[in-house]
Amino acid sequence: MSLNDQELIAGFEKIIGKTQVITAPDDLEPYLVDWRKRYRGQAIAALRPGNTQEVSEIVKLCAANLIAIVPQGGNTGMCGGATPNSTGRQVVISLNRMNQVRAIDTSNQTITVEAGMILQSLQEAATAADRYFPLSLGAEGSCTIGGNLSTNAGGTSVLRYGNARELCLGLEVVMPNGEILNSLRGLRKDNTGYDLRDLFIGAEGSLGLITAAVMKLFPRPVANWTALVAVPHADAAVELLNRFQAGASAQLTGFEMMSDESLALLKHYYPALASPLSGPNAYEVLVEISDYESEEHAMQLMESILEGALESGCASDAAIASNLAQARKFWDMREHVPLAQADDGPNIKHDVSLPISAIPSFIATCNDMLRAKYPGVRVINYGHLGDGNLHYNIAGPSSAQTEEFFTSKSKEIQALVYAEVEKLNGSISAEHGVGQQKVAYLKGHRGEVALGVMQAIKHALDPHNLMNPGKVIAS
């Protein structure tokens, strides 16, 4: 016979202690709602284990009583992937107490960390060891490495270093039956059967609960040079990217694009971060070069490529950061665009990935289509042009209309945008994951065969559908 809620709570308290079992409504509330306030659920409790063995015991107790589990890191997700459903028959497992560095191997260029470690803390631990960890996101002060891996997070350095998947060498995972899969090997070559690591990265906790990871480290660059460049249209931005890739190759570590409407929104809500370039400009591009030779070499490389771009007309203006503070301001501009959106009100978000060559066509087609169908609509288009990832977001004609526009138009606008993504062989999720927001679109996007394979894997590992049910795939 299954335990009732009070008996379950008593069982959880025995495993992790009474203070780490959150049930009081006010204390529980932050675990029940996503940071955008778009998804809300109910839970028996929020549980805060302190080590992997405690996670294992919690999962075993849940499995024995068919209680579903929602893993939660920093709760910074965009698609409701870490939010419980409305049944009240789930528990949230928060790993924010599991935040330690387990090992650093500078010769092997690896760091082993627990899943609840804040991304910024991992970056700082790498710096303290005279190494560099390149994953960088706007939410890096609150998101966790477990959450980054569960969504295969991207960020601003994917162009050079890859997504979270490419930065991970091994995982420790608590399986749906409570068993612990330990693959914390810092190996770059290990061809011994199926790559189980990649099953769990990007699975959003639907196959198991990541508790620790071995991540790659890199030597620290000698120099970083950053520039803000105005371009007349999206095709010019792609040409500028081609010039930097040809001229800088692997030294090109960042290439971010912001549209004029993104910059206008930024200037309105954060006037101190207004662009220093004369404008308005159709797009402004943030470029970063990282160099392992010298400051002078990096500066000369940046100036040489920009000079050619200005002469060709693919760039109309440029400002090279003259010091660290100015470079930080350029990056703050990019990172505050989504914050300005949040200040403005709800917006219809699209985290899409496209072949870089198709991006200008996608933007032109979608812009024309949406502006014709919804007069006055604002297109807040920005993102990681260097890896083909756009945050193509749609807001109502004014901040006063955002809530009504979001509520009434979200589904039809998403359908229009996703249809164009499919025509161009893109993806409806580049780095935010699927969560619960995009489950309904997955069959049409991936196809029946791919979805069937994913469902078979889910059923094999989690036959009772206890791990984050309703996320990624409907099963």
Automatic annotation (TrEMBL):
User: Carries keyword Membrane?
Assistant: no
Record-level Gene Ontology MF annotations: catalytic activity; FAD binding
InterPro entries attached to this UniProt entry: FAD-bd_oxidored_4_C (IPR004113), FAD-bd_PCMH (IPR016166), FAD-bd_PCMH-like_sf (IPR036318), FAD-bd_PCMH_sub1 (IPR016167), FAD-bd_PCMH_sub2 (IPR016169), FAD-linked_Oxase-like_C (IPR016164), FAD-oxidored/transferase_4 (IPR051264), Oxid_FAD_bind_N (IPR006094)
Query: Which SUPFAM superfamilies does UniProt cross-reference here?
Result: FAD-binding/transporter-associated domain-like, FAD-linked oxidases, C-terminal domain
What processes does the entry annotate via GO biological process terms? respiratory electron transport chain
Q: Which cofactor does it need?
A: FAD
- Keyword set, alphabetical order: FAD, Flavoprotein
Domain FAD-binding PCMH-type as annotated: residue spans: 39-220
Spell out the Gene3D superfamilies in the cross-references. Answer: 3.30.465.10, 3.30.70.2190, 3.30.70.2740, Uridine Diphospho-n-acetylenolpyruvylglucosamine Reductase, domain 2, Vanillyl-alcohol Oxidase, Chain A, domain 4
PANTHER family assigned to the protein according to its UniProt record, in alphabetical order: BLL6224 PROTEIN, D-2-HYDROXYGLUTARATE DEHYDROGENASE, MITOCHONDRIAL
> Which family is annotated?
Belongs to the FAD-binding oxidoreductase/transferase type 4 family.
Entry protein name: Hydroxyacid dehydrogenase
Which organism does this sequence originate in?
Answer: Polynucleobacter cosmopolitanus
